[in-house]
Amino acid sequence: MENCIFCKIAAGDVPSYKVYEDEVVYAFLDLSQVTKGHTLIIPKKHVTDIFEYDEKLASAVFARIPKIARALEAAFPDMEGLNILNNNKELAYQSVFHSHIHLIPRYEKTDDFSVHFGDHEGLHNPDEMQAIADAIAKQVN
């Protein structure tokens, strides 16, 4: 895509701190560095979000995540965990509309990154839960 910053980064037209590259993905440091080593993995093929992936692309992109995660763990022995984050569409905080997966190393509870969903258990009764599950299951192809 012509004006996509991530397409330009993958093509080498915009500088980045490359972590990994192959024929399918390009991985580079996020300039925001939420924590040390915060890495983005993008498919080289432009897809806006997860909804545009086909099975082959999804398999190829997501198969590379463990390799890069292990590299982060080896590079930073003080890393105690890792968040994998993927935002899709503006309401879900996607800010660059080229699909990307964040790998965010965690070093301690106070490392300035939190994913806290709260306690929503019991929000729906068992019948509602089953109806939600059924509605989703019916749509899986």
TrEMBL record:
Residue span(s) of domain HIT: 5-115
Q: Please tell me which stretches of this chain the record labels as motif Histidine triad motif.
A: 98-102
A GO BP annotation: nucleotide metabolic process
Tell me one GO molecular function of this protein. catalytic activity
Residues of the active site are 100
Which CDD domains does the protein's record reference? HINT_subgroup
Note the InterPro entries from the entry: HINT, Histidine_triad_CS, Histidine_triad_HIT, HIT-like, HIT-like_sf
This chain's protein is named Histidine triad protein
Lineage, highest ranks first: Bacteria, Bacillati, Bacillota, Bacilli, Lactobacillales
